[in-house]
Amino acid sequence: MTTHTVAERLQQARRGVGVAGAGPRPRREPRPGRRRLSARTITLILFAGPSMILLLLINLYPLLYAVMQSLRNGNLLNLGPWVGFSNYLRVLTESSFWQGALFTLVFTITGVFGSWLVGLAFALLLRTRIPAGGLFKVLLLLPWVVPVVVSATSWNWLVATPQSPLPILAHALGLGNVLFLADPVLAKVTVCVFKVWISFPFMMMMMSSALASVDTNVYEAAKVDGATSWQSFRHITMPLVSRSTYVSWILMTIFCVNDFPTIFLLTGGGPVNATSSLVVMAYRTVFQNFQTGPGVAIALLMTLVLVIVSVLLYRQIRKVNIE
Amino acid sequence: MTQQSGAAFTRRAFIGIAGGVAASTLLAACSRTGGGGGSGSGGGGVIKFWNMPWGGTAFNPLDKQITLDYKPASGLPKTSYQTIQWANFTQTFSSAIASNTGPAVSSGGGTQAFQFEAQGKIAYADDLLDGWKSNGLYDDFLPGLVDTMKVDKGYAAVPYNLDMRVLWYNTDLLAKAGVQEPTDWQSFLDNCAALKKINVYGYGTSAGAGSYTGSHILVSWMIGNGGGLFDENQQPNCVTPENTEAMDFVLECVKKGYVDPRSSTYTSDNAQSQWKALSFGQGFDTGGLASNVGGAVGPKLKVGTPLKSPSGKQGMLYFPNNIMMYKNTPSQKGSEAFLTYYYKNMAPLWTKATGIGLPPLKSIAATPEFQKDPNNVRIINEWQPISKTWAAPGSNSLFLGVTTADGTPAMDTFAQSILGGKVTSKEALTTLQGALTDAIKQLKS
Asked: Is the model's pTM score more than 0.80?
């Protein structure tokens, strides 16, 4: 058997068939009537079984327990009496929940796209030859590598008091007494910028690896055809890194929605709940108000939204693959 | 066909044994989780004592040594020691107690005993305290202290160390502003005005991430005016004339610029940095402020006298931290015997300046080592007698409902609203009343 076209060879390669042709694979005909498991399958099941059971226990049990908690009115020690969906209703009818949801949305959108833009810019910069590029790369990774507790303490030092560098700078620039954390709007901005600062190295790494896989010959060909730098970026770079971009967006969306320490360590959710995201609200409801029902209900609602967003973005990835 | 290997096991036999081992391990693990009871806590007949890092680095090693030096009487269990960090301590205790692997004796959060008492996990200290009446320990407690631990069914815990909130001032800055130590609300206000002229804040406080001092001081103003959060029926009663007047006073301080506008987001460290930077000349903090600030400024910080309100009343919020016993113990007698030993031998925790809060016993407060610090002496002599718990003004004994106010989001929001100065006292108190009422309803349902 001979292969004819590149497309056919690629198709075969995807199916795992040798390019030269592996010949027809012997397929066992299904037996009529009841299917019997082969000894090999049974062995595999027996080997994998204990791990599968453990995985189910480790993952499924806490999830089911959390669902139970959200349907009951309990505390950290007891599940409490059954209350049905009243915890969900209570949470969804509270204005503070929607205030928290709005901030979570703003925080996530800023965190995802802000860090992606900065990360992509640095990834493109790192493709060019810059002096001490390796050192520069390591320094850029620091915000991601350093523990959040340390970063939050540094940012607190940077903005919290009148003697902090940024308020001094703002004062010197004639902006007056800028309250980076005490003003509700500025506190939101500060927390979002902090998130972008912490997250952009991750995006930079994702984009760097995606850019590294792009064949430079394509750019040279485009240049020969008269494409400008922007056209090359718009029509070559962006489509070729789109898959990695969507993956990084999914991951960063999950990181942002579930991000507790960044907010809690810097502002504690204040002032007057201005920076209280849903995850901070869930924590405070469970561990400071000792109300597990509403707190877990908030967490599960967040999970539901995250699953929906992830599925939508994943579909986008599949679409890119097909194209 | 069965494949034979060089080993003695066939593949089928191997799978069978592996499955059996896995199943038995799983079952053993499950039965261990489900079990517990007395032996869970005892760790095989040992009284587990869990204590918090109440002081500096010297505290827990010395505390451990005192604990492990305990020689139980014949037939009573020995003691083990575990330091529990403040980070996530609520989760640590809750999960351990829920799984019957918790301590037999512990300290913890100031209202922790009342939470676990409501869950039926606490062994009441009535018998222990009765025993202490005969050996002099009971009478050694500072006045009114033991009663703060009393709930309907008995004593939920034993007072351990006092976490006080007091007025501090910087002697140099007050002298520079040309004013004296304040004695009442008006002189406090006058001092603030004088300090403002030299660009110093007269009402230093903090209510940011993890700092509850701001809300504690607001409640202290209420208590100092004859008010507070809970009535005699242990129900929230926030919107009272006394509380409104107190919050109006604070709002006046905020609006006149006597409070740093960043206070609502200051952490405890931020506040201390402001004392160090000579930005705070007068304000409220814990009893350990001077040593926490340290350096050249620390010795300049003095504890003031309790302020008299316009109605002539005085009062402050304080936290009688405590040690509790749990029902899950290998021996209740053992728990009580250990605590008796501990209270008789814990004085070095204060006399060796480990940084723990103020002592609950008069005999420790009377030691020369303790008397060396005039700030501590003033706190014990002037502030402790007028201090009240969260339960004020209805009662002095703590109860489960106070957990809805102690370090909760409702109190944070209240403190940040008032210190932000963008609400009226009635609005803020009404919101707080609603939040506390709702939280108590949740607790009871």
From this structure: yes
